[in-house]
Amino acid sequence: MAVRTAILCLMLATSLRAADAWTWWVDDCSGPALASGCHNDDAELARWAFEAWQRESGNQITFTKSAIREHARLTVHWLTEASLYGETRRVTVDGKPGAEIYILPEGTSTHAKDPLLRDAIVFLTFVHETGHALGLAHTANFEDIMYTFQFGGDIPAYFDRYRRLLSQRSDIALHSGLSEGDRRALRAILVH
Ligand SMILES: [Zn+2]
Fold it and tell me: For the chain, which domains are there?
């Protein structure tokens, strides 16, 4: 019996890996960053994106705001010149995996009639780039948050699909944007 208990404990130790604690920082949307089209409350969209990954992982990975920018494992910067939605460079921070996340937030000008669509696009960009920071690669499945437009596809339809889930900004906190394929990919990296 003691042996069986020991084996059970060993199995639990393997499947219940210690929570991976990620800390994050979002650069202020002020000064030169304003040229990016960022909004003051875009940091909230970033936080919701991190919380979406935490929720989807069943709290196996956690995200908290870093008290000190230099020690944040994930740092979000505002891009002012780029043709991309975002870009992620994985780095090492204090000996742990981390990432520099560059976001090109759309201004409201292109979505003047629908600011919620603009926020949805910025949020989904945060979710996608955070996926890279966690180690997820691009997919060719249009349903996935890790889909890349390099495979083509109807980009407005991609964002409208998520926009239709929202009736107000706070609804973004309720919808991660992940597909079943994304969840499988997340589970696959969590067990390693
Ligand atoms: Zn990507």
Answer: 19-190 (3.40.390.10)
